Automatic annotation (TrEMBL):
Residue ranges, annotated region (CPSase): 1-169
Catalytic activity: hydrogencarbonate + L-glutamine + 2 ATP + H2O = carbamoyl phosphate + L-glutamate + 2 ADP + phosphate + 2 H(+); L-glutamine + H2O = L-glutamate + NH4(+)
Metabolic or biological pathway, per its Swiss-Prot or TrEMBL entry: Pyrimidine metabolism; UMP biosynthesis via de novo pathway; (S)-dihydroorotate from bicarbonate: step 1/3; Amino-acid biosynthesis; L-arginine biosynthesis; carbamoyl phosphate from bicarbonate: step 1/1
Listed GO MF terms: ATP binding; carbamoyl-phosphate synthase (glutamine-hydrolyzing) activity; glutaminase activity
Domain of life: Archaea
Active-site residues, as the UniProt record annotates them: C245, H328, E330
Gene name, Swiss-Prot/TrEMBL: carA
Pfam family, one: GATase
UniProt name for this protein: Carbamoyl phosphate synthase small chain
Quaternary organization: Composed of two chains; the small (or glutamine) chain promotes the hydrolysis of glutamine to ammonia, which is used by the large (or ammonia) chain to synthesize carbamoyl phosphate. Tetramer of heterodimers (alpha,beta)4.
Keywords annotated in UniProt: Amino-acid biosynthesis, Arginine biosynthesis, ATP-binding, Glutamine amidotransferase, Ligase, Nucleotide-binding, Pyrimidine biosynthesis
Summary of the function given for this chain in its UniProt record: Small subunit of the glutamine-dependent carbamoyl phosphate synthetase (CPSase). CPSase catalyzes the formation of carbamoyl phosphate from the ammonia moiety of glutamine, carbonate, and phosphate donated by ATP, constituting the first step of 2 biosynthetic pathways, one leading to arginine and/or urea and the other to pyrimidine nucleotides. The small subunit (glutamine amidotransferase) binds and cleaves glutamine to supply the large subunit with the substrate ammonia.
Gene3D superfamilies, sorted: 3.40.50.880, Carbamoyl-phosphate synthase small subunit, N-terminal domain (3.50.30.20)
């Protein structure tokens, strides 16, 4: 099956389609991880994006559904150099894409395209399978909205509150697109989790009598998460306020700080971060927006920073009992360096 990936700058790449016939649009982004491809494809934070893997062979251990981070693939499309047709175990990625009406393209020089992305920044793109019309693909890419103009939270958040019962500390979770293993990491510590939609009001959250409130990861621009920011403001200084990924950005905005769109973001399982005490960890990351350090108020400090570009990777406030990280400590997929330290610290902060 023919396929073409069109870019908003007029360029295009012809390759081999896999999965279903059709078309999709989104922001083309790349991840440098070598494994955990299904964890990434099912990460709700990739909603609105076409995900490209820089590692040259994807699918060599098939589709491991037990490690899905949500019930479905959230990335709009998948771009690879080569897709493995005979995996060591499980269902082939191509078969899964066919059965679930998903779109992919292989035969792409992903490293060349990654270099282009690093130079020009993330581009709007369109993936068309079953057709190799470059003009059509480029036209679709140019017609797509920039991700900073799309509110993606309603697509990934729960519709109604629900409860994951535990015998430990009671945590209200504002679901902006939570990864499954974040909930699992809290549950390992005995947490009693009450999950709420992205637009939950403080009065709704207070009904569960939380001992802490946690803001999850999520897709797109945190500027759209106005309800979550207001909710964070309400609870700051009252109970511990925690966050991961977009949650870090939400809490920074609750302090009055600004966020900005990065040139091509941080995505992969090899991102080094430095704690304020000088120790360094290797982390999994997936974010295209970041906190503007210069706009943080004096009562909010930088907890972690990225070793490569010094961008903010975590914030904290002892006075207001706030603790958040930009990276993903839940270790799916990626290194386990921070799963223990970060989740233990969050849980210990709850009285």
């Amino acid at each position: 099956m023919k396929a073409v990936l069109g870019l908003e700058n007029g360029e295009y790449i012809v390759g081999n389609g896999f999965g279903a016939e059709g078309s999709c649009t989104g922001e083309l982004v790349f991840t440098t991880q070598m494994s955990g491809y299904m964890e990434s494809l099912t990460d709700p934070s990739y909603a609105g994006q076409i995900l490209m893997f820089t590692y040259p062979l994807i699918g060599n251990y098939g589709v491991d559904e037990q490690n899905f981070q949500s019930p479905k693939v959230n990335a709009h499309g998948c771009v690879v150099h080569e897709v493995c047709k005979r995996p060591a175990a499980n269902k082939p990625l191509e078969t899964f894409f066919e059965e679930n009406n998903l779109l992919g393209i292989s035969g792409v020089d992903t490293r060349k395209l990654t270099i282009k992305t690093r130079i020009e920044g993330s581009l709007r793109a369109a993936l068309v399978t079953g057709d190799n019309s470059p003009e059509y693909a480029v036209e679709l890419a140019r017609a797509a909205k920039p991700i900073s103009e799309i509110d993606l939270l309603p697509q990934v958040s729960i519709k109604e509150p629900y409860h994951i019962k535990g015998k430990g500390k009671r945590i209200a979770v504002i679901d902006l697109g939570i990864k499954k293993n974040i909930a699992i990491s809290f549950r390992k510590r005995g947490a009693d989790l009450h999950l709420f939609p992205y637009n939950a009001k403080p009065s709704e959250v207070e009904a569960c009598k939380p001992e802490a409130i946690f803001f999850t990861n999520g897709p797109g621009d945190p500027a759209f998460a106005t309800d979550a920011v207001e909710c964070a403001k309400h609870f700051m200084g009252e109970i511990p306020v925690l966050g991961i990924c977009m949650g870090n950005q939400i809490l920074a905005r609750a302090f009055g700080a600004e966020t900005y769109k990065m040139k091509f973001g941080h995505r992969g399982s090899n991102q080094p971060v430095r704690h304020k005490d000088g120790s360094i960890y290797i982390t999994t990351q997936n974010h295209g927006f970041a906190v503007d350090r210069d706009t943080l108020p004096s009562d909010c400090g930088v907890l972690f920073e990225n070793v490569n570009d010094s961008s903010v990777e975590g914030i904290y406030s002892d006075d207001l009992d706030v603790y958040a990280v930009q990276f993903h400590p839940e270790a799916f997929g990626g290194p386990r360096d921070t799963e223990g330290p970060v989740f233990d610290m969050m849980y210990r902060r709850i009285p």
